[in-house]
Fold this sequence. Notes:
Elements: H1 2-9, E1 13-17, E2 21-26, E3 30-36, E4 39-43, E5 49-54, H2 56-59, E6 69-72, E7 75-76, E8 79-80, H3 83-97, E9 107-112, H4 118-130, E10 135-140, H5 141-148, E11 159-164, E12 169-175, E13 178-185, H6 189-204, E14 206-207, H7 210-220, E15 233-240, E16 246-252, H8 253-277, H9 280-289, E17 291-294, H10 303-311, E18 315-317, H11 324-332, H12 336-342
Parallel strand pairs: 1-9, 9-10, 11-17, 17-18
Antiparallel strand pairs: 1-2, 2-3, 4-5, 4-6, 7-8, 11-12, 12-13, 14-15, 15-16
Helix pairs in contact: 3-4, 5-11, 6-7, 6-8, 8-10
Amino acid sequence: MLASLFSFASKDLGIDLGTDNTLIYVKSRGIVSNEPSVVAVHENSRGTRKIISVGTEARKMLGKTPGNIVAVQPLRDGVIADFETTEAMLRHFIHKIHNRKHFARPRVVISVPSVVTPIERRAVKESAESAGAREVYLIEEPMAAAIGVGMPITEPSGNMIVDIGGGTTEVAVISLAGTVYCNSVRVAGDKIDEAIVQYLRRKYGLLVGERTAERIKVTIGSACPGPDEEEMTMEASGRDLTSGIPKTLEISSREVREAIAEPVNTIVDAVRIALERMPPELASDIVDKGIVITGGGALLKNLDLLISSVTHLPVIIAENPLTAVVEGAGRALDEIRLLKEIATDL
């Protein structure tokens, strides 16, 4: 009876707690929130911290705050780096979805990287419970992504998925609602942005911010040249490290490919290694079905072509690469028996 009352008063949630963005799926409604995983914190002279902004508004403050206000990303490489701030962020999002009804205690499914430690899993679970969740289930990101793109994960056949987020790249082979092979590398979208920052600093003595690097990646970045593709250029603005004054220069798509080659090759190598280590019985399934890639990194131009050229397999970009994980977490709420089977134990 009490459980039914809680269920009525709350809206069960699926959460993709990402390094860069947190997405929330409400049962029977779909995705209702997609905001940056950023928290603005005010710290006074006595060391007392106060949350002043979360999400989109907080991200606008990155790199632009006075000394007593810090805009932080409480997750690094897909795991909690700042427990207190993550808890505050989750509480903000949960209360926002429930119109700040403090009695609402939803059932929550949260996706986590496959290689997080038991301590890191416990930190995620305790953060959600402290933020007001009634029950917390953790499922691995590649499993959530596979559900989100509609893979037949309960069938006795191999399904290969590559989820390239902000902090981690997850490569998994799934069969019979279980993970047959999984590997996670802490190289993904953020490392690609960082590579662009370091390239411009090293080659031109130009210091740019991560948001500028991300804009360069999205606008003219590519994993490899496409057939009959023309080179593109764009202007990048930052601070000249020699003179200390603002400077603008033109950068080409060829230079961006050179800059990001190392992190991109790390991602491709993770896929190749997975293919080498998977059980041979499942190899024919992957040959027939191909490899599905999800996450924001899947949108890097020509990444599918590069992976296909290395593996000689078809590579499909999911129709919903940015939302596949949270949609999978949300859909798992509808099948509680399956959820309990795939949820990770502490």
